[in-house]
């Protein structure tokens, strides 16, 4: 296989690695085939020596500081003030209506897009493919991607009916090296689930090397560096690298709804949330749910020294998490669900001015590696550092931040673990969706009959471990969020 134009020579690769103090990457060079050495040169060509040097230094330094709740943040944390919070539960009906109308207006004018963070594989679910391709065994057999695609179609249709338009909500999908090809193939094979292919824009986030505690890049094969996606906060760099901001500008997109792939209840381009943020003049917004209990492992949206951010549950002391307000409610109750609003201008600002200031989060992982003899070793304890940026770490750069509280049972049921785990499994995700559809049917005046045509008594509240009395799945193409077609 011939060398591509942009590929480095061996001398250039050596010089680049030497600058970064990573010469060991070529230690097996003499044993590689032409194809293997080309693959390694291509990987090295993507690494900038100064960036690499800084990355490896920062990783080793961060790992040595890696600690949990040390109380440094607790005294400086304050809850989001009530005037910056909208709420499905507490805001007046008329306000919710005004916000919904505003959202539909923006959608009808082609100003709204959705952006999906889909860099993760289904490893914890025990499958070798992207999470969005997972089916939680609904009666219809629909996957997460299909449910989301159909919700986009439906909300477009609702905006069109309301405003007599033919609008488009572009769908931007950030993948990683692991998920891009299978995702593209899956969409093609399924004819983009009825969406226009030119309105589904896939792009890839960067991969960065995993580093050992000694600050050296880890080799996973003799000719392959162990790489990992740079976290969902890699979005801001990827928007620039892939010219996505220009694409948004060309289409006239002003507002973005950004979300994670694994929430089966996500309201795509939620008109009420978008309308609330636009109405408040916000450049950045976050949907939150009430924490279920003080120690629930979700990040908390709050302000620290007057700047908004998400504090991870591991960074807060238990006594702070337990604090309560005058009405007995948790003081820090705004649980982050990775469901955000950004203006395009804000994203542009972040990408151009603030991306380099984003905090690096350290994940200490078991990373398979080749030893000095070239043997593959699967470590039994953590040996590597993966550095990640988080999508929500940009809140601090916002000029006008707002939060919007939604009901967990209506909008948040993440799929993270294989069945058998206590929470966030295919079973809990399926139950959440089917229970929601059952509630919609009851609210619309529906009655269910058994095989003998006898009414099945309605059940208005169910625990998380309970299936609804009736299995009832409603296609997103029929109802976006429980609205009834008259």
Mean pLDDT: 94
Query: In percent, how helical is the residue content?
Result: 25-40%
- What's the alpha carbon Rg, rounded to whole Å? 24 Å
> What is the percentage of strand-forming residues?
15-25%
Parts with pLDDT < 50 across at least 5 consecutive residues:
1-5
Structural class: alpha/beta
DSSP strand tally: 20
Largest sheet: 8 strands, mixed
The quaternary organization reads as single chain
Strand order of the largest sheet: 2-20-12-15-11-3-4-5
How far is the first residue's CA from the last residue's CA? 63 Å
Shape summary: globular
Number of helices: 13
Describe this structure in words.
It is a single chain. By secondary structure, this protein is an alpha/beta fold. Helix content is 30%, strand content 18%. The chain is built from 13 helices and 20 strands. Helix 4 packs across helix 5 and helix 4 crosses helix 9.
Secondary-structure map:
Blueprint: H1 10-19, H2 34-45, H3 49-65, E1 77-78, E2 85-87, H4 93-108, E3 112-117, H5 144-163, E4 171-175, H6 180-189, E5 200-204, E6 207-209, E7 211-212, E8 219-221, E9 224-225, E10 227-229, H7 235-241, H8 244-251, E11 255-260, H9 271-279, E12 284-290, E13 300-304, E14 307-311, H10 318-321, E15 334-343, H11 344-354, E16 361-365, E17 369-370, E18 376-377, E19 384-388, E20 401-405, H12 408-411, H13 426-443
Parallel strand pairs: 2-20, 3-4, 3-11, 4-5, 12-20
Antiparallel strand pairs: 1-13, 6-10, 7-19, 8-9, 11-15, 12-15, 13-14, 16-19, 17-18
